[in-house]
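Summary for the lay section of the report: proteins are chains of building blocks that fold into shapes. Here we show the chain for Large ribosomal subunit protein bL21 and then a coded description of the shape we predicted for it.
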Amino acid sequence: MYAIVSIAGQQFKVAQDQHLFVHRLQGDEGASIEFDNVLLVENDGKFTVGTPAVKGAKVSATILSHLKGDKVIVFHKKRRKGYKKKNGHRQSFTKIQISSISI
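The coded shape description reads as follows.
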């Protein structure tokens, strides 16, 4: 059984007991959260497609930790002008574990 669910503006294919890194979510570590914007559910070869979401379907998850991703370096330069700018960015992520998928 798996589902396609929209989490923080992105779509993920999730299954039970799967670990995911999603954009930062509100909540403490160890807290349980539910996502009700389920777009598709597959159960034993039977597909249920929502228009746009499947009514009554929910995905439950547990927040494992909040962390930051790898650093991305942004470098701007204009040749022969002496203009250089170096900037770095680390995206905040939340690691979640899918607890259950209910229809």
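Put simply, here is one thing we learned. The two ends are 11 Å apart (CA to CA).
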